[in-house]
């Protein structure tokens, strides 16, 4: 069973979109942070955009680029109403600082969108500027809610908090100097008894341009801050009990996983589990700071603890099954592939040049073909890049409508029979496997299969490894 936790001195708390979706949710989230502050814990809050706002901003940016400025303006008006309503319900008066700031942010957003409309051009840099308004608008609301509960708070953008990144707009990475900057900028607030509220998902370049850390990047923001401040733990508040053994919408009897290692949770995140950003634990690995995934609806439930070392349970080599949908398989074939290292290098170079994520890679034992699994949204660009970058005697074919299913668990390492149970479960459901891959870390085995069978496959594999039975460690 879980042991009693030592008292915390400093916590970084991240609140996701559903925990920021309206005034009631924001007030509840503020109460969770406030509970720890009143117990004498220093807390840094990192917030996501209100649920659905990030997608709305992407849609209005695309509308502006296509020339539909009326639709873009309608979206901006809806966002303005939603944020002003929340501010009012949280107690802001019409002439308050919060309302004035929200009004200025919406005007800046309107101008940025109008610039895209005039140019009919949406660059990655412009997209980052527009999409980050979700967090920039929610941070003042969280700050307001904390202040209304009697606490002192100060909200900051990611850049103002010290997060300095490279210029890879849309998927930026923190620079090494970030951690010292964050510590310098936030320590004074904490020492003065002020709770910093940071707009997640974003940083800035050395030239001051706003960047984003990729979808779900608020988790990443929180762990960057956690490492910088040497936090006792980083708490990611979600609308689930923790990391589950499968998607509970697909497998009704999925169970909470009490302990995961950094490596296991990275594999789960990479292969489709939407609980955490795939890179969220990377800032914590060197310092060994634990990450805890907690339920906002049941704050006393311990959730899932993510730490350096795995907790292997005898007889339970697999901890979770997860899946990525909307995948395409690209297969390079032709006599020119046979035993020619340069061809394989060209395949990876072409994909890397387009900055496309490779979900799986497999090569036939005869070396006559190479198969790549990529997100379907990127398949067109990937096909174009491969056909342009490879010799003309090679063929590149796409199979769409695919999904990748993965089983994850450190207990698989050196354990016999795991693959056999996986394949038997799929065979029992008459599910055909298109591609197989196992990482050298032995933390996962992944298979590609037809997308219409993935939910059935997930349920069958979950049952085959008895994952519905919760395990206490």
Word description of this protein:
The chain has 473 residues and is α/β, with parallel strands linked by helices. It contains 14 helices and 16 strands. It has helices spanning 23-38, 53-65, 69-89, 97-119, 124-131, 133-148, 178-191, 217-229, 262-270, 282-285, 341-353, 376-389, 418-428, 454-464; strands spanning 10-15, 42-47, 153-156, 195-199, 202-204, 210-212, 233-238, 259-261, 291-295, 304-307, 320-333, 360-363, 369-375, 395-408, 433-438, 444-450. The mean pLDDT is 92.
Write the SSE topology.
Elements: E1 10-15, H1 23-38, E2 42-47, H2 53-65, H3 69-89, H4 97-119, H5 124-131, H6 133-148, E3 153-156, H7 178-191, E4 195-199, E5 202-204, E6 210-212, H8 217-229, E7 233-238, E8 259-261, H9 262-270, H10 282-285, E9 291-295, E10 304-307, E11 320-333, H11 341-353, E12 360-363, E13 369-375, H12 376-389, E14 395-408, H13 418-428, E15 433-438, E16 444-450, H14 454-464
Parallel strand pairs: 1-2, 1-7, 2-4, 3-4, 7-9, 8-10
Antiparallel strand pairs: 5-6, 9-10, 11-13, 11-14, 12-13, 14-16, 15-16
Helix pairs in contact: 1-6, 2-3, 2-4, 3-4, 4-6, 7-8, 11-12, 13-14
Descriptive keywords:
single chain; alpha/beta; 6-stranded antiparallel sheet; 16 strands
Please outline what is shown here.
This protein has helices at residues 23-38, 53-65, 69-89, 97-119, 124-131, 133-148, 178-191, 217-229, 262-270, 282-285, 341-353, 376-389, 418-428, 454-464, and strands spanning 10-15, 42-47, 153-156, 195-199, 202-204, 210-212, 233-238, 259-261, 291-295, 304-307, 320-333, 360-363, 369-375, 395-408, 433-438, 444-450.
